[in-house]
Amino acid sequence: MKKSKVYMVNTDDLDGGFSLIDRLTLLWNHEEINFKDWIKENDLVAIKTHFGSRNQTRHLRPMYIRRIVDLVREAGGIPWVCEGVGLGWDENNKEFTMANGPGFLSVGNRHGFNTSTLNAPVIMDDGTVGTDVYIVPNENGKYIKKVDLAMGLRMADKVIITARFKGHGGAGFGGALKQLGIGCVGVGGKGGAHYGGGENIYIKNPDNCTACGECIRICPTQCLSFDENNKIVHDPDNCIACVMCFAKCHHGIKREEIEEKRIFALRRRIPSLEQVERMMDNAAGVVKGIGEDRIRYINIAIDITAHCDCATTGGHLLVPDIGIFYSEDPIAIDQAGVDLVTKSPGMPGSVAETGIDSPAGRIEPIPDAMSPGGEKFGLFSVWVDAESRPKLVETQLSSAFDLKLGSREYELIDVTPKKE
Ligand code: SF4
Ligand code: SF4
């Protein structure tokens, strides 16, 4: 298997003068990385990031993105920072559902991702409600044969994918591949990965419909209508499983009664291993639709928690900070992150030491999780399919490999200046 190059700067203490932001700059300017030649004069450069869920404090810090913006400008490019419409808690805090662009931009602003701090436009790359997409044929996808690439990324000359490298409840871990497979697709792509598509949505309790018309008003594909009795009708062929109707149709139902009384429901829950495979189908379409040579990856393995940026809780750090990584290969950069986190000792007080209570039951810590070399990735996924947790990481990486997104073999090159 061909080895891909993964470059990194570490976070070890150095003599003065090298902040983490300085180290990011050293990485960018390294002669073998050569961002300056990759970015051409007046290239439109999209910097994809994750704003974090509302009031979540474990997300990528805007300072890293600001420095990337400055470096893109120095190289002659025209930067913008972008996020896609995605999943979050609805305005009533009742269920986890698809948000909208203004909501996401407000969260981004609250977390410091705005034009003032970043010195670049901050936009939603898939439009106001996540339906501004470019459809990429994806014949090799196991489940998703047409991928909803965010149109803003399709139109960019170059795309820099940034991710906080961390754990994830449904995917095992989140890094470059997850940014591609979830972060870079519109709401239809996210719906396809999490909920399986329009055929999986149905009207469970039609008699509960009061004909208020709110779901019809907000459905982005106009696949809802009233029948002759003013009850809601769903057209699965045009539904993209964005689940925005789920959140809109509450009508005074208490949070604990939602599953029983809801009008819109899923026929089946997508098992988490399948979710990960669907996510990688999306990733393959995204790379195809943007163009492999137009994308570069930066993983920031700092503030590594067991949970994603989209989780409401930040949580304790799982392992100590590791560093900032760069690669042209999304699998290699994630594989390096997985390997280094797995070799790190767990942090006292984190789920590595304490285990966690989850809806699937109590998950005890793996006995050697506090030791270097302990298997911590099983603890990264605590909410979905307890029995498949150990397989999630492997499934993400192997599915991406099967779809020819890169190599699992890598050469790790640490370019951190050494102490005298
Ligand atoms: S939002 Fe709910 S109650 Fe209102 S029309 Fe739609 S399904 Fe019926
Ligand atoms: S019916 Fe619901 S899930 Fe389907 S596209 Fe419309 S709003 Fe989205």
Keywords:
15 helices, Alpha-Beta Plaits, 420 residues, two-stranded antiparallel ribbon, binds iron/sulfur cluster, 2 domains
Task: Give a summary of the structure in a few sentences.
With 420 residues, the protein is α/β, with parallel strands linked by helices.
Task: Write a structural description.
By secondary structure, the chain is an alpha/beta fold. The protein has 2 domains: 4-186 and 272-414, no CATH class; 198-266, 2-Layer Sandwich (Alpha-Beta Plaits), CATH 3.30.70. The protein is 30% helix and 20% strand. It has 15 helices and 20 strands. The strands form 7 sheets. Strands 6-3-2-9-16-17-1-20 form an 8-stranded mixed β-sheet, sandwiched between helices. Strands 4-5 form a two-stranded antiparallel sheet. A two-stranded antiparallel ribbon has the order 7-8. Strand 18 and strand 19 (361-363) form a beta hairpin. Helix 1 (20-29) runs parallel beside helix 3 (62-74) and helix 13 (330-343) runs antiparallel to helix 15 (389-402). The two termini are 37 Å apart. 50% of the residues are buried. The model has no long low-confidence stretch (mean pLDDT 89). Residues 198, 201, 219-221, 223-224, 234, 239-245 line the site of one iron/sulfur cluster.
